[in-house]
Specification:
Its cofactor is Zn(2+). This protein is of the alpha/beta class. The protein contains 17 helices and 8 strands. The protein has a single domain, classed as Metal-dependent hydrolases (TIM Barrel, Alpha-Beta Barrel). The longest helix has 16 residues. The structure holds adenine and zinc ion (ZN).
């Protein structure tokens, strides 16, 4: 089908817990005898009106409490991969938040092995290659992050990178300097959320203190011309999430999203879905929405798709990257 929704792309900013659809949440709640505060899926969907990042996070953490067993994590990931594949995603780099589950007594093994069950057969079943990114919760302590890194050591062959998410303002990158140094020493790649709600200074410090290779969101970097110059010079990928930005009110409307200007400034932008169950769309929906709202041309859409594969952690499989890039060039919009 010829539609930007189906343009071949890599998804580089996707929280697996943010793919939990209301129907699956209630099914898992029932299976695991977890009581949710919302009566049914309809009541839950009505709660998806957020004032800011924190109001979303409150619901996100509550709802993910239904995830308990390997099967739960497997089902969650498999459902996401099926949806992603239907929207042109050929490669997905998937965040998970172990601390949010470990506080409830769910082990790192349950989380990683459960997700891996779905990821390991994703290529055969969905035609989507995958990577896992372990994300630290920045509103918890650096000590907690370090313990989480320690707990992940037996599973490092399944984890490509570490990330940093949750409540940004007041939890700057430099809080996690040592954790990132340890992660790098273990051979993990480094990314971090920065400049979603936080100021450009947080993006500078993600680059200069944490030494990240990609910036998740990076939206507010556009306020600082010197920072833009740096990001362009070093070709640092930004994993933008347009529908998320509208729902969490970091931009007023999609029409006012700076994506088009950011591309024109030479920034290496990618388009992703963040928490698609909560924000009204998967990766292809985000492409479709920005095309309509910002009147992006086919060349800009192709550039976004190309960027996603160039920014992907596929350095161990350049043949695959080349194949995906060729699919982008061969895609016909009409
Ligand atoms: N958009 C987002 N920002 C920060 N932390 C998150 N965790 C899940 N989605 C997030
Ligand atoms: Zn995110």
């Amino acid at each position: 089908m010829s539609h930007p929704t189906h343009l071949p792309k890599a998804e580089l900013h996707l929280h697996i817990e943010g793919t939990l659809e209301p129907e699956l949440a209630f099914a898992l709640a029932s299976r695991n005898a977890v009581v949710l505060t919302h009566a049914d899926t309809e009541a839950l969907r009505k709660a998806y009106l957020f004032a800011d990042l924190q109001s979303f996070l409150d619901l996100y953490y509550e709802l993910m409490s239904v995830l308990r067993t390997e099967e739960d994590f497997e089902e969650l990931a498999d459902a996401y991969l099926a949806r992603a594949a239907a929207q042109g995603v050929r490669h997905a780099e998937i965040f998970f938040d172990p601390q949010a589950h470990m506080v409830r007594g769910v082990s790192m093994e349950t989380i990683v092995m459960g997700l891996s069950r779905a990821l390991d057969r994703s290529e055969a079943r969905h035609g989507v290659s995958t990577r896992l990114i372990m994300s630290f919760l920045r509103d918890l302590s650096a000590e907690s992050a370090m313990e989480t890194l320690e707990a992940a050591k037996p599973y490092l062959d399944r984890i490509v990178a570490v990330g940093l998410d949750s409540a940004e303002v007041g939890n700057p990158p430099e809080k996690f300097r040592e954790v990132y140094e340890s992660a790098a020493a273990l051979g993990l790649r480094l990314v971090a959320h920065a400049g979603e709600e936080g100021p450009p200074e947080y993006v500078w410090n993600a680059l200069d203190v944490l030494r990240v290779e990609r910036v998740d969101h990076g939206l507010r970097a556009f306020e600082d011309p010197k920072l833009v110059e740096r990001l362009v010079r070093d070709r640092i990928p930004l994993t933008l999430c347009p529908l998320s930005n509208v729902r969490l009110r970091t931009v007023d409307t999609l029409e006012r999203h700076p994506l088009r200007e950011m591309l024109a400034a030479g920034l290496m932008c990618t388009v992703n879905s963040d928490d698609p169950s909560y924000f009204g769309g998967y990766a292809g929906d985000n492409f479709h929405a920005v095309q309509g709202a910002l009147d992006l041309g086919h060349e800009e859409l192709r550039e976004l798709a190309r960027n996603s594969f160039e920014a992907a952690f596929l350095d161990d499989d350049e043949e695959r990257r080349a194949r995906y890039l060729a699919e982008v060039e061969a895609y016909s919009f009409d």
